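TL;DR need structure tokens for one chain.
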Amino acid sequence: MVRHVTDRDGDRYTRLIVAEFTTFFQWISYPLVPVLEWMQIPEAAQAAPALLVGFADMFLPAILASGIESELTRFVVGAVSLTQLIYLSEIGVMLIRSKIPVNFWQLLALFIIRTIITLPIVVLIAHFIVF
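>> reply
TL;DR here they are.
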């Protein structure tokens, strides 16, 4: 059986290549590293790109976080990426299909705002309840 690569698969491979083999997400995540260090997240430099790459693809945070040794950091990345997944797969699609005029940049802004709101909550849960 021959499997044909569709455009959607090509987009996924492109996002994976950009995340794995370029420094794009490293660059855009630099402002997040001091914030994660302030929140006492171990391996903040590795966790920062994994927190922002969730906008590109739903599986990329897990791929980028696979090299992180700290369980606390992996929990934070996993929980934040789960909320990002829920946003993009449910609420983002609902906004696009509604009659509300929303463009790409507004969706990106909402994604970042939701990540900023979710991150401290997940970090508090990680520090005081889970670990």
